[in-house]
């Protein structure tokens, strides 16, 4: 994997308070995470742990594997909904999730959590027993697939007696998870500053996304309260499926991270 750095290269930095990164869910809005990561990488701010939910787990996996923000941005320009949305006939979702896992395997290889340069936790939910599942071992691609399986749209990942869906159902902004991973300070990026974009839904996908938006706004509450520095990019006007707004999302993430740099340096 050409983008993997050596462990030594990724951790060279002045001694600072261990800083963890919590990446929230929000579908296409997750491109804002890439803009924020651009600033972290350019400023050489060391991150010691990452927890991500849904799209946050996808971006977190790329980041923890050593991918640069340029490579993440390039990848975001290649992916289309048409590439991801393959109809499902299982009766448990409208869209199959194997394609999502295949894309991750293509970009990352069959990397395990133990091989990542930065520790990562992907947050999912087992709907059989209504409990959060913190995925920290085994295949990264498979874990991210589970964390990103929005119920009602993507079919869940069935693993033995577990039926795993998007972690946003219970914890859309996993700041507390990062702290449990050993971070003394937590930087959280919330993609859902507002509970609704105020638009009238036009179809089933709109209804599902907007209903889920209300849910994840509420399940982000504890993460917002648990973070030391909270970034909320100005993207509430952009829909969860609007990949066409990628540049605006990226810029909003970058600007919010640059604005937070003085507070972050003071914290560390």
UniProtKB/TrEMBL annotation:
InterPro entries: Acyl_Trfase/lysoPLipase, NTE, PNPLA_dom. The active site is at 54 (nucleophile), 166 (proton acceptor). A motif (DGA/G) lies at residues 166-168. One of its GO terms (molecular function) is hydrolase activity. The keyword Transmembrane does not apply. Keywords: Hydrolase, Lipid degradation, Lipid metabolism. One of its GO terms (biological process) is lipid catabolic process. This is PNPLA domain-containing protein. It comes from Alkalispirochaeta sphaeroplastigenens.
């Amino acid at each position: 994997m050409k983008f993997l750095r050596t462990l030594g290269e990724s951790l060279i930095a002045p001694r600072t308070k261990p800083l963890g990164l919590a990446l929230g869910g929000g579908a296409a809005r997750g491109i804002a995470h890439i803009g924020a990561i651009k600033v972290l990488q350019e400023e050489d701010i060391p991150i010691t742990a990452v927890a991500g939910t849904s799209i946050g787990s996808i971006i977190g996996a790329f980041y923890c594997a050593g991918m640069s923000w340029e490579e993440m941005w390039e990848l975001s320009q290649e992916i289309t909904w048409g590439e991801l949305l393959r109809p499902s006939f299982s009766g448990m979702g409208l869209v199959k999730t194997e394609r999502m896992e295949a894309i991750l395997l293509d970009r990352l290889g069959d990397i395990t959590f133990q091989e990542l340069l930065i520790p990562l936790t992907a947050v999912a939910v087992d709907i059989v027993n209504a409990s959060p599942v913190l995925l920290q071992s085994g295949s990264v691609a498979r874990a991210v697939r589970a964390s990103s399986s929005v119920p009602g749209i993507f079919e869940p990942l069935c693993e033995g007696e577990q039926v795993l869906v998007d972690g946003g159902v219970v914890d859309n902004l996993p700041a507390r998870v990062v702290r449990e991973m050993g971070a003394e300070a937590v930087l959280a990026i919330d993609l859902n500053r507002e509970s609704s974009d105020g638009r009238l839904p036009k179809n089933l996908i709109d209804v599902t996304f907007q209903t889920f938006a209300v849910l994840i706004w509420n399940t982000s509450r504890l993460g917002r309260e648990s973070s030391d520095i909270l970034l909320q990019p100005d993207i509430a006007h952009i829909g969860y499926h609007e990949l066409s707004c990628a540049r605006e999302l990226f810029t909003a993430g970058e600007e919010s991270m640059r604005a937070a740099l003085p507070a972050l340096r003071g914290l560390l």
